[in-house]
Amino acid sequence: MSSFAVSTIIEKMSSFDSDIRFMGLNDLISELAKDTFRLDYSTENTLITTILKLLSDQNNELQSKAVEAIGDLIGKIKDSQITNMIDRILEKLLGDNEEFHDISALALREIVKSLPKKIPVADRFRVLGSISKHTIPQLLKGVKSTPFPENKLRCIDIIRDCLVYFGSLFQNLHEEISIVTLSHITAFTAPKRVIDCLCHLSVNSNDILFNKIAEDLTKHLTSETKNQFIRAYLQAILAISHVIGYRLAPHLDKIIPSSLPYCQKEKYETDYDLRETCLQSYESFVSTSPKEVAPYIKSFIDICINLISHDPNYLPDDESEDEDSESEDQDESDNGDDEDDSDIDDEVDDDDLSWKVRKGSAKLLSALFRTRPEQLDTFYKEVAPVLIGRFDEREENVKLSVFEAFRELLAQTEAMMSAQKGHLESLDILNDNIDKIVKQLALSLKQTSLKTRVGALSLITSLSKVTPKSLEDQIGKLIPGIQLALKDKSPSNSKLIIHSLSTINNLISNTEPKAFIPHIESFLSVILELTQDKHFKISSEALKVCKNIAIVIKPVENSDQKIDSKKIGKEIYEATFSLLKETAVDQEVKEAAIDSMATILSHFGNELGNAEQALHLLLEKLSNEITRVAGIKAFQLIAESPIKGILNKVLPKLIETLAQLLRKKKKILKQTSIRTLETILKYYGADLPKESYTKLFIELSNLIQDQDLYLAHLTMRLSYTILESYPVMAKQVVDHILPKVLNLSGSPLLQGVSLRTMLTFFSKLVPATKSLLKFDDFIQPLIKLVLEQNSKEISKQIFTSVPQIIAAICQSSDEKEVKKLVSRFVSDVQSNKDQITIILALCALGEIGRNMDLSYVSNLQKVVLGCFNNSSEDIKAAASFSFGNLSAGNMDFFLPVIFERIQKIPKEQYLLFRSLREVISRNADSERGLQIIKPHISKLLEILFLNCENENEGTRNVVSECLGKLALFDPVKLIPELKKHTTSASPLIRTSVVSAFKYCITKDDAADSVIQQYVGDFMECLGDKDYIVRKSALNTLNFIAHSKPALVRDLIPKILSKLYSETIIKPELIRVIKLGPFTHEIDDGLENRKAAFDTMNTLLTTSYNLLNISDFIAHVQIGVDDSSDEVITSAFGILNRLIVINKDVVRSSLDSFVEPLKKIVTKRLKPDAVQQEIQKNEEVIANALSVIVNLKKIPDSERALKFTEFIQQTILRNSDLKAKFEAIEQGKPDDLDDHYLSQSSRQND
């Protein structure tokens, strides 16, 4: 922009006419937005002077526009001019003329906000550091010296902004800022702005200064004598806890004891603000630092019990009732006096602040319930009765907090009920108080406050889930209040109606029908009317109520209840049918109407004269893409109805439509269709013509493929369901389904539920097709399928699935045929044919022998054990598997052979122990297996413990697995036996038993009580002197924390220090080996570090609330700075997860990650690096860049200037790093892969 043009704008801004001045400022702001805007030095001076003059303008709009222009000037004028402008504004801010103070402060705050955004990246670090070191001291001086209290706060606000936007650049001034802010906390009646500044200082300060701040605040809690000053320091602590509670955690052992007297002593009884601040602080501590507050939980509970009932103006119930009875006898002539008394009461209520401590107590209790589920029994015994007593709270906001606290208690109870089998003592206390709870909730439902009524309804819903049985007798007391809510049709009442309908649904669903049936007629008309409501949520919820009513009233004919279920069913049908016909309604209403109609038809189909009309309407819904899935589910529900014949008139068309839907691409549509077909054909298949089955099987055959194994599982299940119900369909299954199933059996992806379904399919098909197919018609295609595989490309999974299928076929076949097949497989092993043939034969023999005793085969044992000496490792493994399964089929015959060979032939021990593992695993899932293996347990234990010190690590690992799985056969006796060996002198034995303990953890909960008793003893090995034992303990901890975190929950605070110690590189575990002229380092601690970080990752997911995040993230930084790429990658995974869970913690530590990240992305390999090293390094750099992108996405990450500078200077100025970084940022992994490939090729060249 030319100097002349700027001069024109300056001239406008200097005009006497305020409108022209405003236009000049507007023109300037428009020009400043252009990248081409440039000024010479003299023009800069004139422009700045003119704008600063406008700050003193009498027109407020002009002043605001001038502030905006000042912010836009940043980045367009020289650094020296910025400093000069700040000095001139500061002069006005700190001057004696109060008129200029406010606008000057606004201008300075605008400059501070604009600086980090508009200064070029290359100069940002230098310019901001220089300006802050020039400006902050003047502001601090202003805080100390200005005689204007409001101006002190303005200066503090500007310092606070500097801390927010570039607080890390003037750390040398942090201590002085802390001194000034701490000294001014008590200088103002409302110190919020000072405290806010102190908070942001705490975020940016180093540990030494932060500890000083925390200690100073704590000291004042006991040294101050004035309550308002104590409250101010507590508010500061509370604010810091909200922002960075993890840093405050180490100081809570002093803060909490210092503040407890203010909630306990009578002399502070009327200082409600002080007590409220204490309670809010405790609530924050409980949420952010659960470990540190553990010793004070009892004190918090006692305080809450005392303060939640503190209401000096509250009149006890009996006195209230007396007064109520007296008031009823009063004459109407006394109304004037009553009004006067009411005015006095209102004045008293206005002055009464006791509600603050009651609300604070309720919120603290809510936090305690949420974070301390292990103290559920204590809460019910000590706290629940008090909370229930406060349901009649007169202050609405307190009552809602009480409701919320009790709802949190119920939520934790529900979670505990799900996790713990058996009866909870807590429920007994809840049931004993159910009368009081319902009485108060019934009263709350009749109050005028919408929030109170919604809160009561939410609490009723929670109660219906936790203790439905005890609520059944109380429903009658709640119905009037719910009816009242449903009848209120005011526009603002929709939320209450929705909650009321939802509550009815929960009550009907969770309680016995007999409890709700007597009340249905009293509110049915309202419900039916609400189904037609224009609000889609009300209409859909009302339809759900109709559906539930239809469910509960149908069995009523067999009970003593007197209700016309047929009449009610017809009324519900008509209301639902009217909505089912409508097309111009919300999707949610459509789906609710379909679901409701399906339920009505399944319960009243034979009593409704026009049911066919509804069925045709539902059939139409299948042609609409939006309602298709809901319609399919509806027909499944109708088909399951005990009323037979409902679907007969639409059956052929329905089956044809469902078969056609199997061609659609949408996965959920195909899955739902198959499930519905399975149900329909189970009950109506006999009425379906043969040609319909033929068309159906053709469609089904196209779904049996490994692209969607779950769909294949559903299809196979449907096929054998049809076969079971209608054996005449066997040929159809053989013609259309069997070829596809046989083809799928060779898929390398076949496993899990799809494999199990296939085994069931063959077990049903073989006996049903004896007249159609021979034994070999099943077996030969399977064997051929395997033998035709390329030996280099064959998947090992095929040797798992095909032998199991062969065994399933054998179980349903003639014994002679099976014996011939066994003989063939034995011959195949003996013939020493190709490897695939031998492995298939061995695996098949094992699978057959597991279910049938093959000890009669004379040379079987010799043939299988002979393969232990084969040169192929795969054949050895197959032989081990085979012999283990054969032994499971007849333990008395084969097991002594395993024991003998373990003792006599050391080279076979690894394979023999794998066989033992099969024996133990195959018998672990049944009572029959327990009885079979029980006589052999002592011998098994003896031989396993003897081999815990086996010199082969692989053998020891298998021994550990055998010990752990064997312990589950008698956990009360055998787990203590494992524990005894944790103190063995041999580190190998200690390692083996700790690893064995991991295998005691299964999905079954039967042994959990015993495991819980001994888990602490095994975790003591985390501190073992031998690193191998510690590694084993880490892996075991990781497995338990992932599978069943509740078992180690109480131990985590105690073992974290031992876990963290394993994240550090230990020089004593690094060995140097000389290989001729070369030396090579071996890090024996690497596996421990990898295991430690894997465990940290698991704990972050399952036990986050037990972690001190400050300590945790410090060790993540250690991981990022590790020498091992594997450890670095693990640390990156944890960091990415932390970004999701707690952005604030990561943001406060951003700058500390810069150096290790820089070291990773700038790492240069040696010139002679091989391709594998190059690719590995590229992967680590890619992971680092991905983490950096995620860190950059954290809100306000640009305020971490060291991190921002690292991105700009290190990454974006390097063309290779920039290309990778931008590819990740834009989410283009293909581009990134191409770049890696080309980069690797260049380095390789």
UniProtKB/TrEMBL annotation:
Q: Indicate the segments forming the TATA-binding protein interacting (TIP20) domain, all copies.
A: 1047-1209
Positions of HEAT repeats: 47-85
Q: Which family does it belong to?
A: Belongs to the CAND family.
Q: Where is the composition biased (Acidic residues)?
A: 316-350
Q: Which UniProt keywords apply?
A: Repeat, Ubl conjugation pathway
Q: Name one GO biological process term.
A: SCF complex assembly
Superkingdom assignment: Eukaryota
InterPro entries per the UniProt record, alphabetical: ARM-like, ARM-type_fold, CAND1/CAND2, HEAT_type_2, TATA-bd_TIP120
Stated name of the protein:
TIP120 domain-containing protein
Region: Disordered; residue ranges are 314-350
